[in-house]
Structure to design on (356 residues):
């Protein structure tokens, strides 16, 4: 039987909030030493591009538009663009490729193209971990050496029979893929950090199994969003134990935490698309609580936190245009709006990442 905590909401909220206060020892967000860059993909089905925005004070300004050399077209996905330690990756759904990105000083450049493994198609989510690039698409999850990009054909490719992947995330000893059809896959990692072996389906409880979407790791514990479920956030251990957490009310269709980013300490941020908000959760190793929602003037479709945990960026759509918005994060995990981009002619964006 899948365990689920039955603790007083008041007790758990107070305990987890105290843990968050204790865990967050960094100072409040301050002006970065070099421009904070926020990257997103236009996801254009004719010619995909990466839009680069620079945060200066309270202004978020488009500074670059970089053609990826591929085409977009993904939908219902998260994490299609990632950035880590000066290098990044963005998937081209319609081209079966991933474009490498690199930062030098205050600008981003395209640094080559990585082809998917043979017979693998339609990449819609990527992750960077353990000196590997992880990709999930319509019929495969695969890992490539990073940043070199060469494919680990065979042991680095896991075939999928379900074409509904929402996102891939990677922890210390295992990776996970959410399937919008209602499943969660556990993928083993080799001792070298890439994918190895076969995927295993983790049994989800009925109150946390409808439309799994966003996913992120805290060390080796997975958090994910079963977006249309009664419990719209859940934790999963490496042993497959599932701990559902109730989200904002009323539940779907009014609220549905869909996309997930890990904050500092025990804080999690979710893109609540129908609720037009960022919904915040606190957790421990065996469950958590919903904290509050911060309004956003549109439908949030992905979000990301900075390496130091002091910034959160989100993308949303409103009145036929895509927007990027940035918040500072204080010691308690609360968000303060800093800047929002102007429309650039894109109806929507896909994926968002921060480079410091």
């Amino acid at each position: 039987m899948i365990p689920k905590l039955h603790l007083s909401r008041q007790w758990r909220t107070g305990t987890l909030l105290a843990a968050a206060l204790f865990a967050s020892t960094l100072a409040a967000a301050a002006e970065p030493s070099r421009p904070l860059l926020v990257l997103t993909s236009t996801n254009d089905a004719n010619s995909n591009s990466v839009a680069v925005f620079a945060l200066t004070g309270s202004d978020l300004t488009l500074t670059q538009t970089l053609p990826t050399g591929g085409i977009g077209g993904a939908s219902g996905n998260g994490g299609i663009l990632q950035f880590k330690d000066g290098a990044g990756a963005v998937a081209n759904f319609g081209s079966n490729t991933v474009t490498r990105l690199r930062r030098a000083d205050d600008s981003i450049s395209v640094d080559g193209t990585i082809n998917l493994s043979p017979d693998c198609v339609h990449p819609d989510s990527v992750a960077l971990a353990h000196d590997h690039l992880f990709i999930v698409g319509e019929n495969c999850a695969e890992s490539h050496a990073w940043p070199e990009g060469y494919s680990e054909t065979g042991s680095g490719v896991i075939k999928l029979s379900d074409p509904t992947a929402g996102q891939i995330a990677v922890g210390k000893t295992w990776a996970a893929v959410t399937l919008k059809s209602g499943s969660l896959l556990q993928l083993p990692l080799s001792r070298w950090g890439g994918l190895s072996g076969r995927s295993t389906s983790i049994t989800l409880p009925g109150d946390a199994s409808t439309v799994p979407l966003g996913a992120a790791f805290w060390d080796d514990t997975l958090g994910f969003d079963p977006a249309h479920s009664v419990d719209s956030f859940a934790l999963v251990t490496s042993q497959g134990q599932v701990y559902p957490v109730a989200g904002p009310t009323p539940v779907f269709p009014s609220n549905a935490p869909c996309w997930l980013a890990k904050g500092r300490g025990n804080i999690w941020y979710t893109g609540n698309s129908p609720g037009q908000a960022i919904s915040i959760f606190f957790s421990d190793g065996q469950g958590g609580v919903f904290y509050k929602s911060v309004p956003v003037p549109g439908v949030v479709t992905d979000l990301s936190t900075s390496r130091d945990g002091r910034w959160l960026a989100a993308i949303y759509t409103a009145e036929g245009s895509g927007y990027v918005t940035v918040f500072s994060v204080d010691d308690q995990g609360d968000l303060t709006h800093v800047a929002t981009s102007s429309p650039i002619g894109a109806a929507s964006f896909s994926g968002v990442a921060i480079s410091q």
Residues 13-355 form a domain with the Methylamine Dehydrogenase; Chain H fold (CATH 2.130.10.10). Residues 1-11, 20-31 have pLDDT under 50 and may be disordered. The first helix runs from residue 9 to 23. The two ends are 44 Å apart (CA to CA).
